[in-house]
Specification:
It is built from eleven helices and twelve strands. By secondary structure, the protein is α+β, with helices and mostly antiparallel strands. A hairpin with a 5-residue loop joins β2 and β3. The longest helix is centred in the last third of the chain and has 23 residues. The protein starts with a helix and ends with a helix.
């Protein structure tokens, strides 16, 4: 989870198959839960479960994720694999829905998404998608650094990303198991949830008076809020978009990662982190491409995304309180200051 995810929180196909592979008492083959003995032990366990020759000596950990620990490991054929382990029970609980969403969107978008080959309550494994992150977020300052210029060649990055978002936002919800209990019929629940968080933040944090007035006005403006909810990725930012660098030509979008915060929600949430990372020029170019690809850009949607981005720091501050990270609280309060 990073900035965008802080703003919220197919029939007889792979989704069903993935569910069959998950065994709450252990692996589908009777193997115990993934060990805590380090990346090499995890790689050996995953190799046994997958039936793939993974080399434990190549295993390396990535601890930057908020909700999951990630291990990269190479197979004997040279393929790199991703092993994801939930940090907390609530992260593990979201895996079934994430798997169902991936199954539903994979055939709808030309942008590759993870293809889970192993899915259990303790471990997800899939071949690593090609490319490198388009940017990374500094864990201290929460500022993004781009590895490429998102505006230099929009046809290769922002436009395919916009098409992918249209595909996600127009995915029929009745084709995604688990959506019925996510209040999909009542778009007002998203608004109410944000209002509740503002009330909590006001009680627990020294919110700036001008920010409080702006957020209340935003919440009260019926014109800015969507009439319906859609399927959303929930965490679209440069670090979750991969780009490949051909020998000739500009970097091109090659994957959309980390669907752990996928939900039925406000589609504007999928634009917030791209605004935060690239400013209004990136947001405007992405919205133009989204509209051109058939996405619905409502009157006031740009203002709505800007307001969501402003409210982002309330979520960060509350997240800092909830996870015992005072530095995040301090950073968020500085960003809220006029």
């Amino acid at each position: 989870m990073t900035a965008a995810s802080r703003t919220e929180r197919a029939e007889h196909t792979e989704g069903a198959d993935l569910s069959e592979r998950a065994d709450p008492a252990g692996g589908a083959d009777g193997a115990p839960y993934a060990p805590d003995g380090g990346p090499a032990a995890l790689a050996a366990y995953a190799a046994h479960r997958l039936g793939v020759a993974l080399d434990p000596a190549t295993a390396r950990e990535d601890e930057t994720g908020w909700d999951f620990r990630v291990t990269h490991v190479r197979a004997a054929d040279g393929t790199w694999w991703i092993l994801r382990r939930p940090r907390r029970p609530e992260a593990a609980d979201r895996l079934a829905f994430e798997g169902a969403v991936l199954s539903a969107v994979r055939a709808r978008t030309s942008v590759p998404v993870p293809d889970w080959r192993l899915h259990g309550p303790d471990l997800v494994a899939y071949p690593r998608l090609p490319g490198e992150a388009a940017g990374t977020e500094d864990p201290g300052t929460l500022v993004y650094g781009w590895s490429m210029d998102p505006l230099a060649h929009p046809r290769h990055y922002l436009e395919p990303l916009a098409r992918a978002l249209v595909a996600v936002h127009t995915t029929p919800l009745d084709g995604v198991p688990g959506t019925a209990g996510r209040e999909r019929a009542d778009a007002g629940t998203v608004r109410t949830r944000i209002a509740d968080r503002l009330a909590r933040a006001r009680a627990e944090l020294p919110l700036p008076a001008d920010g409080l007035r702006r957020w209340r006005a935003w919440l009260d403006d019926d014109r800015l809020w969507p009439d319906r909810l859609t399927l959303i990725h929930g965490d679209v930012h440069p670090g979750h978009t991969l780009v490949v660098r051909p020998q000739s030509g500009p970097p091109a979008l090659s994957g959309l990662l980390d669907w752990a915060n996928a939900d039925v929600g406000d589609p504007a949430a999928d634009f917030v982190d791209m605004l935060y990372a690239g400013g209004t020029p990136v947001l405007d170019r992405l919205l133009d491409a989204y509209r051109a690809a058939g996405g619905e850009v409502r009157d006031g949607m740009r203002a709505h995304v800007l307001a969501r981005a402003s409210f982002l720091w309330v979520h960060v501050a509350l997240r800092g309180l909830d996870t015992g990270r005072p530095a995040w609280v301090e950073t968020a309060l500085r960003r809220m200051a006029p």
